[in-house]
Write a structure and sequence with these properties.
Length: about 200
């Protein structure tokens, strides 16, 4: 047995990696990425080209840049792979995607909602001013310098309230972990859009 054969990734390992995720879209994307990186042999056109195309379109869904067409194409690609792939590995990949794509989570992503809050482009952390005591714990925890504001000091006023700069935020969640007053909230992109005044 060669070294390559002993280190070859098995389909069970691919599924185990994908199943670590909670979001069906993330699960499908990870499955395809792990399949492409390991077990896929590339010998048959439907499997190799289909997997690469599916990965591109699944990535669009995760990143919030997809349309109905992308989901329909992934469904069509997977259905074609299930029939035309020459090996069980390709068929298993197609089955996995088809089992997950029926979830309403896929279409929800098109409206800015990841129900499992795993797709970072679909979530935002915000600070609720009414709950914030301006203690500065979140400021200390943020390694991305994404939080602006001033700690409250006795007998002084006129502070700049704490807020999260979305363009800097990497959504690590550390600010929420350290806040003792539940002043940091995780919102979906859909909820954020609903909060924004019309015309802004």
């Amino acid at each position: 047995m060669t070294e390559k054969e002993t280190t070859q990734v098995k389909m069970e390992d691919v599924q185990a990696k994908a199943d670590e995720k909670k979001c069906p879209v993330q699960q499908s994307l990870v499955f395809v990425e792990e399949f492409l990186a390991g077990p896929m042999c590339g010998k048959c056109f439907p499997c190799s080209m289909g997997s690469y195309e599916a990965r591109i379109r699944l990535k669009r869904v995760v990143d919030g840049n997809a349309s109905d067409e992308d989901i329909d194409k992934v469904n069509a690609i997977s259905s074609h792979m299930l029939v035309a792939s020459m090996c069980k590995r390709g068929k298993d990949t197609a089955k996995y995607i088809l089992e997950h794509i029926v979830s309403s989570d896929f279409r929800d992503h098109l409206t800015g909602l990841c129900a499992k809050n795993e797709c970072l482009e679909h979530v935002k952390y915000i600070i609720i001013p009414e709950k914030c005591t301006m203690c500065g714990d979140c400021l200390d925890a943020c390694k991305d310098n994404a939080i602006l504001g001033e700690r409250k000091k006795p007998y002084l006023s006129g502070y700049t309230p704490f807020e999260i700069v979305q363009k800097r935020c990497t959504k690590c969640g550390e600010c929420m972990k350290v806040c003792k007053f539940d002043a940091v909230k995780l919102l979906s992109a859909r909820e954020m859009a609903e909060k924004e005044p019309a015309g802004v």
